[in-house]
Every structure is written in C-alpha cells, then in structure tokens.
Amino acid sequence: MASINKRPDGRWRARYRDANGKEHAKHFDRKVDGQRWLDTVTAAVQTGTYVDPKTAKATVTDWCDTWLAGYATRRRSTVRQAEVHIAHIKAAFGPMTLSTVRPSHVRSWTAKLKADGAADSYVYAPHGRLSQVLSDAVDDGILARNPCSRRTSPGAGQQRAYVATTEQVWGLYEAFPEHLRAAVLLGAFVGLRTAEVCGLRVEHVDFMRGIVTPHAQWPGVELKTEMSRTAVPIPQELALDLSAAVAAFPGDGTVVTDGRGHSAAPWTLDRAVRAARDNVPGLPGDFRFHDLRHYLASMLIASGADVKVVQARLRHASAKTTLDVYGHLWPDSDESTRTAIGAVLVARADFLRTSGGATA
C-alpha cells in the first residue's frame, strides 16, 4: 500500500509498506518526484526485484562472510577452495555495497586478473564463484539482479591436455620407485585421479572378476558423487599386476603404499612424477600424475570407443565434460559423412541404371 501527502512544511511525504508490513517513507520537495519514487518501488515489488533499503546497504564483504558461514557445511577441501575465491572477491569488491556492483566492474576485474598473467581457465573459477555468491544474494532478497552473466565470463579456456605415448607411460612406470608403480597402472589404465589412487583400498578391487570400484580419496574421504564411485572393469592381466603389488608391498589396507606399510599421499606421487619425468624422452616438464588419465582417454578413443563409453570409464559427470576435454581426439568425421551420403547416391544410381527408371 502506498500514499503521498503534503506536510505542513510544504514538502511531500511518500510512503509504502513492504511485504512484511514494514513502513518506508521518504520526503520530496515536489509531488512529482515522490510519485516517481513510489512508482519505481511499486514496479520493483511487482516484478520481484524489490530490496529492503536497509538490507541494500550490505557490502560485498558482509555478504561473503554470511555466505561462507552457510557454505561451511561442505567438505573441508571444498570450503578451502571457496575461501581462496572469496579472498579474490573481497580484494576487488569488498567495500562496495551489493547493489553498486555492475557488469562493467566484473569485466574490469576479470580483465585485470588476466593482465596480471592468470589464464582464462583460472579466472573462470573466481568469476563463477562471484556469480554463485551474488545469485544467492538475489535468492535471499538482498540484491535485485546478478551483475554476472555470460557477457562478463572470461570462458573456461580451451587448453588441450598433453597425451603421453604408450612408450612414455611405460618409461614413467620404469622410472618410478618399485613400490609406487601400481599407482602408474591405476592412473593410466583405470583412470583414477591422484587422490583416488592414494585412497583406493584393497577391498575395493575385485581381483577375480577384474573390477575396481573407487569409494574414497586420500585421506579416506568418501567420493562426492555417485558417478565418481562407478565401477571400472579391468583386464585380468592388470588385476594380476595389482595383486602382485599388494602382495609385495603390504600396508594398512590401501593398494598403493609408501613402501613402509602406510598409504602413499598425493604429494608422494607428485614428487615421484617430478623426479621421473626428466628421464622419459619427450615428456613435458609440466607433466602431472593426473595427465595419465588423458592417456587412458586417448587409448579408448583410438580403439573406437564412443563418447558415452569414455565418459563412463573416466567417470565424468556428463558427456559434455568428456567432449570439452577430449573432443579433438576423435577422428575427423568429414570423410565418413561423405562416404555415407555417397553410398546412398551410388545405390540410387545403380537402381536407376538396372531398372531403366528415370529420376522424379
């Protein structure tokens, strides 16, 4: 409900009540200005973009602190990543009120990050976090609209992963300490991520049937999604190699150990890769243990596996992720489409020639 009345001092008092019944008022020298203000507020209420004037004074820092408090229920590693992004956001927008952040400010921020040397793929993450935080502010009714959008996004980047050759994978295997070689097999032929390799327990490998079912990542944290816990079939030869490694280097229940009876930590594998990669001809200096997954993907694609099979073996959440990372590895389909269309035309020509018919 809104109204505007003239006060004894000659000024005009415009007022309205919000959805909670709270009255808001503002004074104007001219009635037309007061009416314009009421019209704006009424339109905001009707379109769902109304924000309480007092709430609208919240700064980006204030809201980020509130948002992080609610986000703290996630696993600790997820929260730590969010805290890193929030630090970037506070440094750029902290003192600003939420309502004053404009798309131009967001674009300037991402441009500065890139000018400072950050890659698009790096800038994409904090931008996505800012969008998430401000979107939640909109849902909470303290911000009218989110200034982040596709137009402000820097894009996720199109850097192509390095794919090791089979010779390089076996070279890395030979250069690894003997007690860690099973890790190379799990990365290159099962597609496990670094922390998943270190967290894989013996009971999660069916050596008789040839099935690896990841359940946890180091240090014993359950994998987040159902897809990441998908069972992966392995050949009997690989099952025998993994079984032999477990027998040779027994530990506290994990498949890969540090050689002293304890589970290997992710940084142990990272150090082993750094020490070994210089001894493998052609392997780039920035090659990581995680890159062994790319070898598995390339091997499956070269063998004729379709995108759904590769997605399932790498346990990607969606086929889009698989195509975004490995789409360039599938063979060019130009010639196959030419052949398919040509076969139809040839068949038509043969029919007309043998039947003596004419084209329609």
Description of the molecule:
- By secondary structure, the chain is mainly α.
- The chain has 4 domains: 49 residues; 75 residues, Orthogonal Bundle (DNA polymerase, domain 1); 164 residues, Intergrase catalytic core (hpI Integrase, Chain A, Orthogonal Bundle); 26 residues, no CATH class.
- Helices cover 50% and strands 8% of the residues.
- The chain is built from 14 helices and 8 strands.
- The strands form 3 sheets. It has a 3-stranded antiparallel beta sheet, covered by helices on one side. A 3-stranded antiparallel beta sheet has the order 4-5-8, with no helix packed on it.
- A hairpin with a 5-residue loop joins strand 1 and strand 2.
- Helix 7 packs antiparallel against helix 9.
- The longest helix is centred in the C-terminal third of the chain and has 22 residues.
- The protein is extended and about 95 Å long.
- Largest sheet report: 3 strands, antiparallel
The number of distinct helices, counting runs of at least 4 residues, comes to 14
Give the ordered list of helices and strands: EEEHHHHHHHHEEEEEHHHHHH
The total strand number stands at 8
Average pLDDT, rounded to a whole number, is: 82
Q: Beta fraction of the residues?
A: 5-15%
Full CATH superfamily name of the largest domain: Intergrase catalytic core
> How many domain regions?
4
Euclidean distance between termini CA atoms: 72 Å
Tell me the overall shape: extended
- Specify the helix fraction band: 40-55%
Secondary-structure content class: mainly alpha
| Alpha-carbon Rg, integer | 30 Å
Name of the CATH first level of the largest domain: Mainly Alpha
- Regions with pLDDT < 50 over 5+ consecutive residues? none
Q: For the largest beta sheet, what order do the strands appear in spatially?
A: 1-2-3
Stated plainly, the CATH topology of the largest domain is called: hpI Integrase, Chain A
Which architecture name of the largest domain does CATH use? Orthogonal Bundle
